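Hey, can you fold this one?
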Amino acid sequence: MPSANNNDLAAAQAATAASSSNNTNNNNNSSKETIIVRPSTDTDTASFAVKPETLLQLIDPKNPALYADMGLADGLARMLKTDLVHGLTVAKTDKAGQDDGQDFRRAAFGNNTLPETELKSFWEFLWIAFNDKTLIVLCIAAAFKIAIGVYKAAFAPAGKRDFLGLIDAAAIIVAVLVVVLVDAVSNIRKQSQFRALSDFAKSLSEFRVVRNGETVQIATSDILTGDICLLQTGDVIPADGVLVQGFSVQADESTLTGEPISIEKDLVKDPFMLSGTKVVNGVGRMLVIATGVNSLNGRSLAALDVEAEATPLQQKLGKIADGIATFAIYGAVTIVAVLLTTYFVVTPPSTRDSFEISQDIISVFILAVAIVVMVVPEGLPLAVTLSLASATVKMLKDNNLVRHLSACETMGNATTICSDKTGTLTMNQMTVVQGVICQTAFEHKDIPAAFKDNVIASLSSASKDKSLAERLLAFIALTLNVNSTAEETIGTDGESVFRGSKTEVAVLNMTRLLGFDYQNDRHASELTAIEPFSSERKRMSCIVRSATTKDWICAKGASEIILGICDRYIDANGRVQPMTAEVRAQNEKTIDAFANNALRTIGIAIRPLPHDHHVHIEDKTDGDAGDRDLIPDGSHLVFVGLVGILDPLRPEVPDAVASCQKAGIVVRMVTGDNLATAKAIARGCGILSADGLAMEGPHFRTLTQDQMDEILPRLQVLARSSPLDKQILVNNLKRLGETVAVTGDGTNDAPALTAADVGFAMGIAGTEVAKEASDIVLMDDNFASLVKAVVWGRCVYDSIRKFLQFQLTVNVAAVAITIVTALYTTTNGPKTMVSVLSAVQLLWINLIINAFAALALATDPPGPGLLDRKPASRTQSIVSPKMVKMIVCQALFQIAVILTLFFNGSKWFGAPENDPTNSIKRTGADAVTAAIIFNTFVFLQVFNLVSSRSITDDINVVRNFFSNRLFIAIMAIMVVSQTIMIQFAGVVFKTDPAGLSAAHWGLCIALGFCSLPVGVVLRLLPDIPLPESWFQSAPAAPAVPRVSDASVDANANSRADAKIADAKVAVTAGDSSATLDPAAVSASAPSASAPPVRFTSFFGSIRAARADQSMRLLMDRNQIRRERAVQARASRHGHRNPFMSRSNAAAATAAAAAAAANPMGVPIQRVGTNASVRTQSTVDQ
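Sure. Predicted structure:
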């Protein structure tokens, strides 16, 4: 067994002392060996020794032989006039974005953008809207009406000539044009909103490259052929390239090949990094060889053009609309049949000639078509898309970037939220506040002077050699500085900022305060192997080469894990001692004390190794990573100490959690921290209640299904969890019928994000893979913003229900009034087949319903009571019993008012002496009564629109009324338009051409206003008792299939800490503990297979189009395009396995395989060179 003694430490200290001179020599050597190629100013593309077509042959299919002929990375760099170490040499640009001197390169190889999706013009939207079948039928009927009108006006006998026939037909056509115009304007508005959202999303995409020898953050669209990109775990590769330097780099190419495996990359055999694929392991440098439309992914996406599918709510409403449309068609046919039968059989038109009879028959058909046009709920999908368009734009202001529109709907009915801790519940501003180094305790206030004095005094107490103690402290700082992924980079604003894990940033800030800058240590050190951080191992390790015959393993990670694999420790005198039970217990007590104070504890350990004990980076071959551990860090380590890191709780989180709980949403915290820390944070947030359960991941994944069903309702905290544990939790919650929202930031969170009903990725700390798998991106990583997504989701859901309540009320009332009055006029009075609501009037009412009302209700802001009710279940119908009560009773009230006016109007108001419109023959009522009926019916809808702002028992329908200016503007447009119609278009609408008097207007408005008090009374009455089955829209969610432990990576399980796996794990309820016997736990762990992974471009283009009266939104356009691109390219891709499924399930398996690794990027330096790779990680330790 390798051993460490005080001589080993002394040698390490001596090596540390020599680091400064080594750093200087290394830098000098580097400057001598590096040749910086200055870009030519020649704009001729022939100035490059290679063309884009040749570069494409490298990757489609993969051609390592051609790559070798080109001279591998060095030869390709010369052809592209770039430098593998310093990258492109570009001119410094100011914030205004002046020329960077690389236009000649763009001219030769293009930029890294795809052509914008062509937007539909206003005229195209007009044509799409006009293609509605019912409108076409109505126009055909109007054409017949025009033909008859022309005959009546020009060719009929002198005594029977009628010029109003042409006006009727023209009015119908004008009404159709207005409906089409409003529809097109609405769609243009939605299209512009989604394009703005797409442009904003694209502006967020950045990548790290090396230019002028510096690491800089640039927009993905600014990447050029010849750039050196820095890759790390979780990146989505932005362009095609070749790997020129790296360690353990693996890529998920299932988006291209359909193979659910990770491809190990090699600098010679397979260095090809393809755009759109994902880095699932390792770090490295990539030389960009193709961008934009010249890249493999760009060519495939540009060749595809598909439409996105409707959202679930659109599909559900589509079924409702289809049912209503079917009812309307049958109703219209019935009306025609009954009226014709009555017209010819009951009251034969013996006194009419054939011309009048044909005109009456055509009028009946026009009336029937108008009824269908009005009743068919075209406004339903319009209301959905208007509401979604409005909500997604406003959600962006609340730091929610919606990637999949269906998530906006689903989030409103979420029943449980599984939230990460770091950065979501806490501020992700970490600071080392306490710690123990070499058994000497310190606090943040002691740094730097008191800390260094105390530690150095303690370490030198035995040897009396202060310089030796200083060198030992410097060596400990070096192990922390090199075993880290965080670093400072230059952002797009030119400022230097720390990027990477906030935990590591806190540690690096501590070492910097102590006077040991990480940059100096990294430049002076040589790393020969790296084992990235993973959720299974809970630690990160590297091997740093010293000047002696000993190399050193540097490990840091979860403190109890690190302590468990140490059998020695450095005492207060700086000497290595055996780890006794007393010392171990003392350190465990310190860990518990830190954790109970809500501190994240990080353990630090080292171990000496001979030079030939491990695999060198340059000796690693393809497949080595999967055969054995490169670093023997599983035992026999020397415990150096631990630090406690404070991440303050976000001040707004407790109120946000309380709001969720009030809304019937269970909030669960899923974290990688230890149980004590997790419980302390959960109590501070209000997540962990007195009767709630807290459990650790290793035990959770071993529960049987029965145990899972018993524990899940009370489980509130899952600590020391892996991404697999999170996925198991999500799938089992869904199996129990929950609607689950999940947050995630790491690459291995992708399966859980995909499995959830709504996946939230972190916009700041999240990897690109996590964002790809998510539905919504939290731009500020804040839990309070997630709660706002719940509010907007419920607002969208309620907006649709409000519109549905309004429209069904109008439909029922209008159809009933039309049928009753048409039957009456056919058998009595003028004995003509007409309704008191003419076809032109019905079309105007249809415009109010499908355009104005949809726009008004869809943009209503969320009310304060949205979080005061429980979420709707999966099986709950969109039409509630309260809505049925309002629809039926309000419709009956409107029918009663209109029929009362119809049968008594002539007696109450008196018929006009002169009626040029012959209204009694065209509507069954005199001109004044017809005008009052039409006006009253419209105002009943205007005030019912206000009443429909509430779909609950809340009688205050004017709450926040004046905060929605668009709603007020729409009502004003409706009232003004109706005034014009009544006062100046009586001939068209078959009402009194002279208009209505002030008294008549007052009567109409008063009767319409009665809809509001009627609504108040109805809300105070009990609901109509109806069968519960009427309100079940779908069967219960099917059980989610589960996977056994066999699907879990055996290597990952074997690397799990033995102490954690074998010990009796306690399930804690609040502050008490209830221990479960591990012997009672089934050997097979219940889990659930991940649903298909959605491979969509996070910054893909978005466009909107309307077809069949619904907006086919292209928020998910690249998702469908890429899935189809798999089939288009897999057949000719070199890695395709003909026996491997290319379905989404295969892609999900790939993501699940990646979940077993969850590696974290790390800075490395290739042995024998001075070229260092700098990366940062967003995967939190």
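The mean pLDDT is 75. Let me know if you want another pass with a different chain boundary.
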